[in-house]
Amino acid sequence: MSKKKQNGILMRLIQGALIGTGAILPGISGGVLMVIFGIYQPIMSLLAHPFKTFKENMKLLLPVIIGVGLGVLGISKILGFLLDAYPDQSVCLFVGLIGGMLPSLFREAGEKGRGKSSWVALIVAFIVIMALLLSLQVIQVEIVPNLWWYLFCGFCLALSVIAPGMSFSTLLMPLGLYTPFIAGIGDLNFSILIPAGIGAVLTVILFAKAVTTLLDKHYAPVFHGIIGIVIAATLVIIPFQSFTAGVGVALINIACIAVGVIAALALDKFNSSVEKPD
């Protein structure tokens, strides 16, 4: 195997790990990272038509799929610890990562033009998601995790991969499902992993083709609507109350946001220099 081919496989493995990480981080979308890495279309083609396109796409995507699994399992343990020990700082870091990814997301959304319908979709999606998430916070819904709710978690996890920009972990957090779900993944708790896996597979079967068709026919409005969702979800998870705890805490939070922005921009710049798969 040539060195160039080895480097290509390693790069796709790393990209897969980042996609898996993005799928479970609050507010971040694995689908966005797939778009940035230039592998969204082949992955969606494989998911929408697994038998028809298996031979064509599997050789390219196998390292990515392995990387996704490693990313999800590897980051879950670390994420569970960080959210428990440094919840506000962790969320601020995530907010910075999202903010740093927005320029690339806007760039991708405008690839096929940006008309009036695009901006309408962005504003409407922003208002609807903001209202929904704020309502969940005000109502303070308390849910006891069980089989059905972990199926729902799998549904959310899969959507964050197949729909660019959608990160439904921000819905799981106010419902009280995010922490036990992440802990279950990190601990390899099969009473959580099995129903979540079933929910994820069913979501892919039912929605992958529909999402692909929607993006093919209404690319700009759908993508801008997703940006509206991203912005709303990000604003909701910012721990504003911690900024009033003292100057030191506020400065640490700001530093975490800055680190996230810089890391995301650096990732986008690095990816721009890497040849995307055909």
Q: What Rg, in angstroms, do the CA atoms define?
A: 18 Å
- How far apart the termini lie comes to 20 Å
**Helices and strands: which structural class?**
mainly alpha
Unreliable residue stretches: none
How many extended strands?
0
Helix-strand string:
HHHHHHHHHHHH
Average pLDDT for all residues: 81
What portion of the residues fall into strands of 2 or more residues? Answer: under 5%
Helical stretch tally = 12
* Biggest beta sheet summary: none
What is the subunit arrangement here? single chain
Fraction of residues in H or I helices: over 70%
Overall 3D form: globular
Outline the fold blueprint.
Blueprint: H1 3-24, H2 30-36, H3 40-48, H4 54-85, H5 87-109, H6 116-139, H7 147-162, H8 169-172, H9 178-186, H10 190-217, H11 219-237, H12 247-272
Helix pairs in contact: 1-2, 1-4, 1-7, 2-7, 3-4, 3-10, 4-5, 4-9, 5-11, 5-12, 6-11, 7-10, 10-11
Question: What keywords describe this structure?
Answer:
mainly alpha, 278 residues, globular
Brief synopsis:
With 278 residues, the chain is mainly alpha-helical.
Description of the structure:
- The structure is a single chain.
- This protein is 79% helix and 0% strand.
- The protein has 278 residues and is an all-alpha fold.
- The longest helix is centred in the N-terminal third of the chain and has 32 residues, at 54-85.
- The two termini are 20 Å apart.
- The mean pLDDT is 81.
